[in-house]
Amino acid sequence: MQQILKMALLIAIFTTSLLNVTMTFAKSREVTLVVQYKTVYFAGKARKAIAVNHQIPAPTLHFKQGDRVTIHVHNQLDQETAIHWHGMILPWQMDGVLGITQKGIPPGGVFHYQFTLRQAGTYWYHAHAGLQEQQGLYGAFLIDPPTHPAFQYTKDYAIVLSDWSNTHPNQILANLKKEGGYYSPRFPLQPSLAKFIHDYRKADKNERQTLIADYKMMQQMRMSIYDISDVAYDAFLLNGQTNARPWTAAVKIGDIVRLRFIGAGGGTIFHIKIPNATMQMVHVEGNNIQPYPVRDFTIAPGETYDVLVKIEKNHPYIIYAESVDTVGAAYGALITSPNHIVNYKKVPRFPEPLPVTREMMSMMMGDMDHSSHDMSSMEMNMPTEPTIMGDTFSKPTDTDQTSSGTKYENIVAAVKTNDPDKPIAKIINMELFGYMDRFIWFVNGVPEYNAHPILLEPRKRYRFVFTNTSMMHHPMHIHGHWFILRNGNDAYDPLLHTIDVPPGATITADVDTDASGQWFFHCHMLYHMMSGMSRVFQYSTLIELTKGEIPPENVAKNTQYINRPIVRKDETRPLDTSLVRHPMAHPAGFWFANFLDIGFDPFQNSSRVTYNGLFGPDYHKLELFVNDAEMKQGKIENADMDIFYWHLLDQFWAIKGGANYVYRPAQTPYWQPGVGIEGLMPYFIETDVRSYLYSGSAKLDIELSRDTQITNNFFIRLGIRSILASKTLTEAEIGSGLNQMRYIVRPYYRLMPGLNLYAEYEYEHYYGAFRQLQVNAGESASQNTVTLGLSVIF
């Protein structure tokens, strides 16, 4: 044992010495990057994208470990920008996050990023200002190690996978804020009745029972079993190339090709394979691992995976990357001859993904079955200290948690990455969740704009316990640090900068606080990040530094672990105290949502309009609501408007209150106060209950409806509405007791996101005192209405 320890110590000393020698002979490298607009035709239409040096992806930056780099970023946009060096350990003020580590580079301005490369591997860089990354500002960042890795290869290519929409990303986010399922019409996988019947008919007995359980769970949870992605993209790109002209690279028989896959999608997880070839996974997120073979793998936004492919035959090796939501794919090829005709269409698609509920339950059961889930681990998840703005800190225990069953379970580091016996200072529990229909995403129930920074002390180890209680994947990325993924290999647990947390999963990772300053931490699904799933980590020393209590730190040195330098530099540029006082990458937005329903009854020469407008931030809005305003034969018969304050309570429910203006059927228009509650009950029952008070009469208006999805875009809505009052007011057309009942059947078809075509049958019947008022006015006691119309969201 002593000999082994001595040998390990000698290897560590040799490695550190080699790294220091590399630093001694390092070069100073300068690169100029010009950020500018560029017109692209990725999806059939001319659209304005963001390029770097006229390129999408941005130029591949290739350096050597130890290089001292200066990257001059010139901004030729009409808005601020900033560039983040994803996965890099560097001074915090060089990390490139607008609002956290720097003020934005102004239009016409330049910023000089300067840092020394104390690590090696496959990384990438991208914008960290708004949603500019989604518009094309991303590229590969490759660093050669001082010595060759244990694996050998003869060719080396970066494969940058990304997604593209012809809709501007700011408009995409605005659309998602109007309705979380705004892009649902464009997804092939839908939780329709037809899909259920199709799957049920081809399933065996056990699978049929599981399908019923899936759909029952979906109905009770009020979520789609195919909530895989938020946006149905118009194109998927491989190295900036569309499928109309795929990317290719020349190889020859006998080559061993290193393919460096980079997940640069804004919201797409890619499923990757090379048909008729076995890939060897050798390098994950900048670090060498113990190689293992794979036939296929998935890559989430923010991740990188390096594989080796041996060219053994004289035929094209197709690289096939399909979006897991089955919307589309990107592909390219390694070709051994320029005369090869590559038949990309012959590549079979991946099997249809299982319902998310199935994946979620599998992860949850895996966690329950794992030995760490005893009483002590359950106690570890309980907050034992006060919650600080929604972020739960717990006292450490000796229990590790491994999320077995994830794609990371086979990853073992090639060299030692950490001291597994280092004590844990605190456990930080992080629940990942969101209000999908409202499109608000959280860490511990709080969006970024409502949360204070999480304070970290230097030279400590923190344990992060991620629990994903949502229906979607969340690739969580930490800036300027490594996650030590606790997957049961102790000193050989892998280092990751991004961890894709599946639905229902619990994943544990440790973070050693080897830095200073403040850093961003977020979901790399860009629209989740923009909508609140992020945090700021702030070192306690930074607060002391701004108060003048301690001097700035200036430490940069290697450690015994590869790719794990210690960098504590606070003097790379003057300290901007405003960033420290109010660090915020994405403030709360002000959103507009308009729902307009216009219908015409050709048999009675009448028309109806329903309008609902919501204006404001996520939780507090002004609501303008006109419900079933009716004009018949040129005369307004019904028209009133709620002018309410609207407040979101939770994922499904909101309360509201304010004033209501009644124009008709009252003989004289009047104002009345009103309150209400609206939301979604289990089994997708839409609920809207409103109460008003006028001249001593309290009126209650109750509406319930349910939409049943028959096919991908064809629905049938069944609805019921009841109006009651406590007192008869003839001048206001209100009767005591039950006034009326309305029953509707509305088949409708989703023509495109935000636009539906419908036909509606409504039967309306009057009761009691209100019925008598109608009869006295020459109206019938009931009526049937057939309406044809459009509903639109804008």
Keywords:
single chain; mainly beta; 7-stranded mixed β-sheet
Q: Could you tell me how far the N terminus lies from the C terminus, measured between alpha carbons in angstroms?
A: 70 Å
By DSSP, the count of extended strands is: 45
* Number of helices, where a helix is a run of at least 4 consecutive DSSP H or I residues: 10
> How does the overall form come out from the CA principal axes?
globular
Q: Radius of gyration, Cα only, in angstroms?
A: 30 Å
Low-confidence stretches: 4-24, 370-390, 396-401
SSE-based structural type? mainly beta
Strand content: 35-45%
Portion in helices: 10-25%
- Biggest sheet strand order reads 34-35-36-37-38-39-40-41-42-43-44-45
Largest sheet: 12 strands, antiparallel, barrel
Q: Care to give the gist of this entry?
A:
Helix content is 13%, strand content 43%.
